Fold:
Amino acid sequence: MPSGNSVFKELEPTDEVPEYLKRALLSEVDTIRDTMTVVTHFTEHFLSALAVSLSSVDTD
Structure:
């Protein structure tokens, strides 16, 4: 049985990451970024509409 940190050295890959895996990871990151953009867009409009509606209730 290996001693010390050599067990962890055996877990580290020595090869390059396959190109398809890189593309898949970038695709997932792009999907998350696009989703966050859509959520932010609709959340901002919802909150601003809510603020306007609440401010009009206070002035009436």
Notes: The chain has a mean pLDDT of 82. The chain has one domain: 17-59.
